[in-house]
Amino acid sequence: MGKKVRLGIIGLGQQGSAYAKFIANGQVPNMEIGALVDEDPAKREEFVALYPGVLMFADHLSMMDSGSVDAVVTCVPHYLHPEIGMAALSRNLHALVEKPAGVYTKQVKELNAFAAARPELSFAIMFNQRNNPLYKRVKEIIDNGEIGEILRSNWIITTWWRPQGYYDSSAWRATWGGEGGGVLVNQAPHQLDLWQWICGVPKSVFAKVSYGFRRDIAVEDEVSAFADFGNGVTGVFVTATHDMIGTDRFEILGDAGKIVVEGSKAATVTRLSKKEREISASMDMEDVKVLFSGEGNLDQFLSTEVIEFDSVWGEQHAGVLQNFAANILDGTPLLAPGSDGINGVRLANAIHLSSWKGVEVPLDFDEDEYLALLNDRIRAEGKYPERS
After folding, report:
1. Where are the domains of the chain?
2. What secondary structure, in 3-state letters, does the chain show?
3. Other CB atoms within 10 Å distance of the CB of residue 313
4. Molecular function (GO) terms listed (predicted)?
5. Which residue in 58, 297, 342, 387 could disulfide with 108, CB within 3.0 to 4.6 Å?
6. Cβ(223)–Cβ(209) under 8 Å?
7. 314-366 pLDDT, tens digit each
8. Is the per-residue pLDDT at 14 higher than 80?
9. What pLDDT is attached to residue 175?
């Protein structure tokens, strides 16, 4: 049997417990559980029973200094991801941070710089949707130029319905000081990442955001953002946590085709025989009359393909863990380098900032201004210390 990476799982909530299960079940063949960490004594007792013989710690630093792990994954509240990631890297441990990489760009930049100074260590982020074969194929189609240059993209992702009881379950949830935001930092980071991974990083954004719109919370539960990618290319991102019916529809229009992804399960890819403007230029008014009369048919210019993949629960997360271990063991390229984590955080920050100021905000916004306005909200809550 080949060498395995000993993983320290920090935080045994929903994600941490799932990762332990994937590894224990053999879904990550190049990894084993090195140690588990949780502050809660009851949780530690529960997991000692589930995984007898695995070392258990009450704090992450003791685990990191124990010599029992080669790498860690940070399944902790968002603000802690950079701090714990840097603590691991400083001890020559490889680091996999959960999404989002942090809450505000200044802390994520610090993490990225810290990791860049240690290139011999693997630094990754749990963007498991990049391991979704559907989105991998969509990106491949676009990168290959099969629908031409992107002109517009729209993503409505409102399948995040959360009742009030969800927000009331923990004091830190849906607070500026404890969680750092709402749907943009909790539910939608995967889509913010995929949108930019597939379509590119916007130049600026203008957003209308509602805070506590349909829930008794301080943070955002309704977002409509308009992005400018430059050269006339635009995008729209809509998300919410109060839509019980929910929609997940991602459209990418190119100058030679279109992709429509429904429910993150199936993509309809329509390719044009030529670029749209070439088809337009080839038609005279007689051709247009035929089309308008209903007698014409555009099918001669189109070909359509429907792409679907079976998705086994846990397969995408387990695949990221396996890829992270492979990067450590033999240098296999990372699916999601940790440095990419700043893109989604930057866009979420820009959306917040635009809504707070009521103006269009460039993606290279003033980070100190953002942090000052975030701290205003943390201070008003009166529950948590301000951030620096």
Report:
1. 5-126+313-338, 130-310+344-381
2. CCCCEEEEEECCCHHHHHHHHHHHCCCCCCEEEEEEECCCHHHHHHHHHHCCCCEEECCHHHHHCCCCCCEEEECCCCCHHHHHHHHHHHCCCEEEECCCCCCCHHHHHHHHHHHHCCCCCCEEECCHHHHCHHHHHHHHHHHCCCCCCEEEEEEEECCCCCCHHHHHCCCCCCCCCCCCCCCCCCCCHHHHHHHHHHHCCCCEEEEEEEECCCCCCCCEEEEEEEEEEECCEEEEEEEECCCCCCCEEEEEEECCEEEEEECCCEEEEEEECCCHHHHHHCCCHHHHHHHHCCCCCHHHHEEEEEEECCCCCCHHHHHHHHHHHHHHHHCCCCCCEHHHHHHHHHHHHHHHHHHHHCCCEECCCCHHHHHHHHHHHHHHHCCCCCCC
3. 8
4. nucleotide binding
5. 342
6. yes
7. 789 999 999 999 999 999 999 999 999 999 999 999 999 999 999 999 999 99
8. yes
9. 97
Which CATH code fits 130-310+344-381?
3.30.360.10
Q: Per-residue pLDDT for 312 more than 70?
A: no
Tell me what the pLDDT averaged over the chain comes to. Answer: 96
Decide if pLDDT at 194 tops 80.
yes
**pLDDT number for residue 1:** 46
**Do β-strands 248-254 and 150-157 pair in parallel, antiparallel, or remain unpaired?**
antiparallel
- What is the residue type of 326? A
Partners of residue 153 on adjacent β-strands: 235, 252
- The Cα–Cα gap between 351 and 205 comes to 7
Task: Please give the CATH number for the structural domain made up of 5-126+313-338.
Answer: 3.40.50.720
Summarize pLDDT for 37-77 with one digit per residue, the tens.
999 999 999 999 999 999 999 999 999 999 999 999 999 99
Separation between Cα atoms, residue 377 and residue 263, nearest integer Å: 34
Q: Once rounded to an integer, what is the mean pLDDT over residues 89-111? A: 97
From the list 74, 117, 65, 79, the residue with the least C-alpha distance to 95 is 74
